[in-house]
Amino acid sequence: MPKVAKEMTALDVKRAKHPGGHDRNITIAVGGVAGLLLQITPGGAKSWLLRSVVGEKRRSLGLGSYPEVGLADAREGARRAKAMIREGTDPIEERKAARAALAAQQRRGLTFNDALDRYFAEKSHEFRSEKHRKQWRAGVESMVCGEIGDMLVSEIGTQDVLRALHPHWLTTTDTARRVRGRVENVLSWATVAGHRTGENPARWRGNLDQLLPKPSRVAKKSNWPALSQADGPAWFVDLRGRDGMAARALEFLVQTAARSGEVRGAVWREIDLEAGLWIVSASRMKMEREHRVPLPASAVALLRSLPRFAGTDLIFPGPRGGMLSDMSVSAVMRRMHDSEVKAGRPGWIDPRSGQPAVPHGLRSLFKDWAAERGFPNELSEIALAHKVGSEVERAYRRSDLVERRRQMMESWAAFLRGEERGNVVPMIGAGT
After folding, report:
1. How far apart, in whole angstroms, are the C-alpha atoms of residue 128 and residue 135?
2. Integer distance in angstroms from the first to the last C-alpha of the chain?
3. Letter string b/e over residues 222-254, b meaning 16 or more CB atoms within 10 A of that residue's CB
4. In terms of Cα–Cα distance, which of 27, 33, 30, 32 is closest to 13?
5. What is the mean pLDDT of the chain?
6. Model-level pTM greater than 0.70?
7. Which architecture, in CATH terms, is 232-416?
8. Domain limits, CATH 3.30.160.390, in the chain
């Protein structure tokens, strides 16, 4: 008759130790269930094993680690496994099959939120900046994840995408249009990765275009509030009288017709003061192309007057050493407008909308000025870092006309300073 192991108590299990002297695991019969063992490694780690004959083979089944699995649970697990063996089932093979089925179910059962995480991680290197990464994801999460985020990608249909997009389509059309494309990309990835089959429910042509109005028909066209040309020189006088790094950044911005982010992120190594040239790398440009900016003499003089700060290469650093915020630059224009209003004048406003002008509207002011002075459209568009001509034309164009643009930018700076021929600059604070 086989020897029956003495039943260990919970305290016995806790106190059990490896005897040392060798580097092999030891096993101790626990008792209570035949074949149940406590395994102890030389390092002191403990786990449960059940040794039993399954069919014609002697098998060892792991029942978990101690103390995560206690003595009572280990005995209960061993009893269930032995019951399966008596019924002709191999618990080890059963466990392998269950794990495989779970893994397959998880692969098939990917939610849109999970698909978004994986797509975003795999495509992260394609985003042009950290800001773009955050905006891309935030738009999808805020607009559609509340409706379809927890749905399995395999079950998302056209009506589900429509339900998510429709509330935003007429109010924030441009954003909704971009988000639709992002959803289409995520679901396309899920299809190629094997998580769904069939047509893409976020596809526009022949699908959502039959259910939603064309964006071009419903998008609200609104331009950034811009100064009138008549106000440009007086506004520039006001600006140059303002103190602070944000004011200097705005002064540089208007003379170069650049975007706020390009100016706020500008570093000294991009500047050639002797050549009067600012070269912005493709990674910092919206169009992802290197942009050469010919600097008017007054912009070069501005840069020469600025201090260089230790620990940063930024030309216009913020108070804490990092980049200035977009809000800081906008706040300069807002304060300028408020000061005018408090003085009893109309303020620096867009003559069409009546709204206070903003930094991005200064690019519109430059565009209007260039058109009225007869500068070729190609020159002003290149200065604004817009795409010019067809893709074929851009492929064949070898020059960015930087020297021709230099003449234009010098004239633009002269206009701002009130030195353009026939230009009379009203004095700030003069009586009306």
Report:
1. 11
2. 118
3. eebbbbeeebbbbbbbbbeeeeebbbbbbbbbb
4. 30
5. 87
6. no
7. Orthogonal Bundle (1.10)
8. 10-107
Closest CA to 38 of 55, 22, 17: 17
Q: How far is CA 192 from CA 108, 148, 195, 197, 393, in A?
A: 12, 20, 8, 9, 35
The three-state secondary structure class of 401 is coil
| CA 116/CA 108 separation, integer angstroms | 15
Question: Superfamily for 112-218?
Answer: Tyrosine recombinase, N-terminal domain (1.10.150.130)
Residue 430 is predicted with a pLDDT of: 40
If the chain, 432 residues long, is cut into consecutive pieces of 10 residues, what is the mean pLDDT of each piece? 74 89 88 87 89 82 87 88 83 77 65 93 80 84 90 93 89 87 95 92 94 78 82 96 96 96 95 95 84 96 95 92 91 96 94 91 93 91 80 55 93 94 45 36
CATH superfamily of 10-107: Integrase, DNA-binding domain (3.30.160.390)
